[in-house]
Amino acid sequence: MTLKNLIDESYRESLERINVSRKRRDRLTIMAQVLNIAREGTLKTQIMYRANLSFAQLNEYLSFLQEIKLLKANTTDGRIIYRTTPKGLKYLENFAGIKDLLEKTDEHTSKGLHSNRPIYFL
């Protein structure tokens, strides 16, 4: 299985768990959805419809993702194509890993395996 397939599978599973547990999406989840849609290159309207964003929201996310170099826009045949950068792919990989980690933590908590010991940070 390729890295791309692993990311796709883990990303889809993470989104399914998130969407079951709450109705509203957070900013990090929306960013991951936009980046996932744009992995192979896509048009602005396709991102808007597939990510279920308003035009204003879409423009905000596209600007921000380009500013932090997770997404790039190229003009091809007079059309602007948005594509996820290698840094954006790394974000998707990390996003899926964190969501998976949180999901596993939730399983332990619901089974009564959560410790009441304090957590210390260095």
3D architecture notes:
- This protein has 122 residues and is mostly helical.
- The chain has a single domain (3-20, 27-101), classed as Winged helix-like DNA-binding domain superfamily/Winged helix DNA-binding domain (Arc Repressor Mutant, subunit A), CATH 1.10.10.10.
- Helix content is 61%, strand content 10%.
- It is built from 5 helices and 2 strands; from the N terminus they run H-H-H-H-E-E-H.
- It has helices spanning 3-21, 27-37, 44-50, 55-67, 86-110; strands at residues 71-76, 79-84.
- The mean pLDDT is 84.
The count of β-strands is 2
What is the tally of helical segments? 5
N-to-C order of helices and strands: HHHHEEH
CATH class: Mainly Alpha
Look at the structure and give the mean pLDDT.
84
Number of self-contained structural domains: 1
Helix proportion: 55-70%
| Rg computed from alpha carbons, rounded to a whole number of angstroms | 17 Å
Across the major sheet, the strand order is 1-2
Oligomeric form:
single chain
What is the CA–CA distance across the termini?
A: 38 Å
The amount of beta strand, in percent, is 5-15%
Low-confidence stretches: none
CATH H-level homologous superfamily name: Winged helix-like DNA-binding domain superfamily/Winged helix DNA-binding domain
- Please give the largest β-sheet: 2 strands, antiparallel
Q: What's the architecture in CATH terms?
A: Orthogonal Bundle
Structural class: mainly alpha
CATH topology: Arc Repressor Mutant, subunit A
Shape designation: globular
